[in-house]
Design the sequence.
């Protein structure tokens, strides 16, 4: 249970970071596309 408790925050942070990175890439791609266009 102790290990699970320690892993919970790590997974949550990883998921949040991954989501943020995905959004950043999406926005960056959109911005680049807009600039290119």
Sequence:
């Amino acid at each position: 249970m102790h290990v699970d408790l320690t892993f919970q925050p790590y997974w949550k942070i990883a998921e949040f970071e991954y989501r943020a990175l995905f959004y950043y890439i999406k926005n960056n791609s959109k911005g680049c596309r807009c600039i290119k266009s």
